[in-house]
Write a structure and sequence with these properties.
Blueprint lengths: L1 E8 L7 H17 L4 E3 L18 H14 L4 E11 L2 E10 L2 E7 L11 H4 L5 H4 L2 E3 L4 E6 L6 H9 L4 E6 L15 H17 L2 E6 L1 E4 L2 E4 L3 E3 L5 E4 L6 E8 L1 H7 L10 H7 L2
Parallel strand pairs: 1-2, 2-3, 7-8, 8-9
Antiparallel strand pairs: 1-14, 3-4, 4-5, 6-7, 9-12, 10-11, 12-13
Length: 279
């Protein structure tokens, strides 16, 4: 099975839901014209990332925008980052999976970074792995969604792969880090995400789709570097550093089966989790 994945590496304006929504609509329509089966946007792509207290003001506008975007996603699927209100005043950093003209599911972020510049734990409720892990059957194959920090921990990706995901989509708002200690010609953060996406693809025999935002927001700059990594650990396509970009890559899901023939992926020793639970 082959599918066409569009990487929509965009810059968004904080709090400008109308302008951000229109940008999403234009890229969804472009992806459809280019025959994409799936178009992926970055983390919190509808709202901007450094929301702080604004996170409590945007959910109703997000919900309306998500419904409008869903109506465009009849012959294609999309993954969009937004703020989801689970109960009055309780919000999540979440991804909406759109397809068949509706919202197929909403996936909250599980690991909320609250260190350095990150303050997500102050504003957002984390997802519940027992309830919120989702695998979507999109007709062209199955995929699951993680959000940024989730891929810095091994369990979410492994769980999605064991649940049947053939593609793991990771949307991110990763700020630029490591300019003063580049790896070759790349900033350190690019090297770090290359290691994470390659490791997940190799360990779980899946394609990993990583889409990071780009552009400045207050004092931060987001670097882009979106990519797709195949289950053999080879990067199939990538977007530019520092600039908006849009790339379409054809993914061959039969590569998953080939990779898993020479992998112990299917052996899951649950006693390691029992050991970890005691630590």
């Amino acid at each position: 099975m082959k599918l066409r994945v569009a990487l929509a590496q965009i810059s968004t304006r904080i709090g400008d839901l109308e302008g951000n929504k229109e940008k999403h609509l234009s890229y969804i329509r472009l992806a459809k014209r280019e025959g994409a089966d799936l178009v992926v946007f970055p983390e919190l792509s509808l709202t901007g990332y450094l929301l702080k207290d604004l996170a409590y003001e945007v959910p109703k506008h997000c919900a309306a925008a998500i419904q409008e975007l869903a109506s465009e996603c009849i012959d294609t699927h999309a993954v969009v980052g937004f703020v989801h209100e689970v109960r009055p005043g309780i919000v999540c950093n979440a991804a909406a999976v759109l397809g068949q003209g509706k919202v197929r599911c909403v996936v909250p972020k599980f690991y909320l970074p609250t260190y350095g510049l990150f303050e997500e734990g102050r504003y957002f409720k984390p997802g519940d792995p027992l309830r919120d892990l989702k695998v979507v059957d999109a007709g062209f194959g199955t995929f699951g969604v993680l959000i940024c920090e989730d891929l810095w921990h091994p369990e979410p990706a492994e769980a999605l792969a064991l649940m049947g995901a053939e593609v793991i989509v990771c949307i991110a708002s990763s700020p630029l880090r490591g300019l003063n200690r580049p790896i070759g010609e790349r900033p350190w953060i690019d090297h770090a995400w290359s290691a994470l996406t390659t490791s997940a693809a190799l360990m779980y025999g899946v394609h990993v789709v990583f889409v990071n935002r780009v552009g400045h927001e207050d004092e931060e700059f987001f670097w882009g570097g979106s990519r797709i990594v195949a289950p053999d650990g080879v990067e199939r396509c990538s977007c530019s550093i520092m600039d908006e970009d849009f790339k379409i890559c054809e993914v061959d899901l039969s590569e998953n089966t080939r990779a898993r023939r020479f992998s112990s992926f299917r052996i899951h020793l649950r006693d390691f989790h029992r050991a970890l639970a005691r630590l």
